[in-house]
Each structure stands twice: as C-alpha cells, then as structure tokens.
Predict the 3D structure of the following.
Amino acid sequence: MTDSVLGVEVGDTVSFEKAVSGDDIAAIAQATGDNQPLHLDAAHAARTRFKRPIAHGILSAGFISAALGTQLAPHATVIYLKQTVRFLAPVYPGDTITANLEVTSVDTERSFVTCSTDCVNQDGTAVLTGEATVMLDPLG
C-alpha cells in the first residue's frame, strides 16, 4: 500500500504557469511596500547589472504557492507550513514562469506533504529552486 495524504503521494507532480506583466510587478510592490527602483524604474534599472527592471523574487515564489494551493490537492485545504527558496536568475516583465512541484515525502500521521520546488522561465532557465511543506486538511 502506498502512503498518501488525502490521495497525494510521493512522486506526484503538478505545475502552474503565468506570464509576468509590469502590472504584476507593480501590484507586488504595492502589496508589500517594496518599491525599490530596480523593480519599477527603467532608467534606474538600466544602470544595474540587470539592465532593465526585474520582478520581485517573491513573485516567483508566489507561483509555487499557487501550484500548492490550486493544483496539488484541489479537493483539500492546503496550509502552507514552510518554504525554502534559492533565487538563481532574474525574472523580467514578459517572461512566462512555470512553477513545478514534485512530492518527495508524506507524513500520514500529521497530514504533511513535502515537495521539491522549482520555477523555470520560457527558455527553460531555472529562476529558483527550493522545497515546500504543507499540511492537507479535508474540505469541511
């Protein structure tokens, strides 16, 4: 018998894809208060190593949250417990980011699911990697 939590088991994979717009970047800046010019001012960003505005790293991490919350167990309540992230490459307006998750362990006693996580851009370049742990509760 395979260990699973509400039907989620080791080896399951899900993904979530979204194109990043300038409006998305502005919305993250507004929501978080991080209005660093690197994200919002093209003239300022042109003088940086990136040469143009980049998205906040947390935006890509948010795509992992979307995959967890909407794709991993749509039949359950997904409670985010832990996330580690290593940012590898910038994300620019116009990039399409795909968050990929693979279930690496399940704890049936506590209803915990751990996933390896990564995000790649439209060219297949990894922009972040990490690991996430969630708790799954039945819809009530």
